[in-house]
User: Fold this.
Amino acid sequence: MVLEHSHLKENKTIEISGSKSISNRLLILHQLFDNILIQNLSNSQDTQLLQAALQSDSDIIDIHHAGTAMRFLTSYYAIQEGKTVVLTGSERMKQRPIKFLVDALRDLGAEISYLENEGFPPLKISGKKILKSTVRIPANISSQFITSLMLIGAKLENGLQIKLEGTVTSKPYLEMTLKILRTVGINNHWVGNVIKIQPNIHNIHTEKHSQSIPFVVESDWSSASYYYSLAAISRKTINLKWFKPYSFQGDSVIKEIYWKFFGVNTISEGAESRISLLPEHYFQFPEKIVLNMNDCPDIAQTLCVTATSLKIPFEITGLETLKIKETDRLQALKSELFKIGCIAEITDDSIVSQKFFEPDENISIATYNDHRMAMSFAPFCLIKSLTIENPEVVEKSYPSFWQDFAQITEKTN
Assistant:
């Protein structure tokens, strides 16, 4: 897909579907406690794949590239008594480690075996009743491993106490899960390094607990990040619908980040569930962006592209989980930033800009089967024309991205 050199149309409004992160958590909870009514479910491919898997009677569940589905379903199937499934995915999914989650589930008493390579999918999972209620897991791994355990905790007869070892990564995602659990009536608390999920309140068949609990999914803040990038580069206003002033999502920190470093103010109109991204025209850009994104690694690519577009040096740390995403995002980001004029260096958990230069005219961005690579680089078309390879990867989280993008951008004559 060729994105011609464009400008942003002023004051347009975009509606973004429900958060993938929240939707996927609710789908598991809905399957375990069927009195949860989900509204504004994400239309992302990941959510559709998880939904299809949960509704399937097949003994082989293929979730393709959907990493969230792989993690959440591993715990879900581990407690489905009497059911045996093979949980598999794409070739890239078979390269993404899942050992820490499997070890934790096995420690609880789950029956899970590896069918190909030790520590990686595909998995054979034979569901059984789990009575043990305490488990340990490293805290500096993907938050989805820990969330996967949290989601099944209330379904276990004795609840679940998760002891986190080490420094917590992506803490807001765990806090989001706890808030969702509380919203649907599951008691929990997090003190120190211990998360405790209370058992099975929905097994009490009172009138109160048999009623449906409605949950309206708020729009996705990581999807909003691409519009923050457009606003920061263009210095024009964009409006986004279905966002709450107080969000469950850790990526809502994009508001503070883009105000501090790029002068994009977020004005919230709660009655209309709308936010407006208003760039400050006389904003003094920083000499350098220094930021630890341990709590919000999914928006790091967007920030690096924005900074490169505006030629602002950056030093981003706390990115160790990016190496096990849809691709090794740190290596991919380094390679593709070079194409738009940024020489960057990476470590296992950081990326630092070294020098900016004028890029070539023929820019072609590889996307590595990674939706965020495609969407985070798209705003660079405000600077120069570029080609996005395999643009369909956006279906994973934001299927209508290119249509929405076309609505608010216009080719520069």
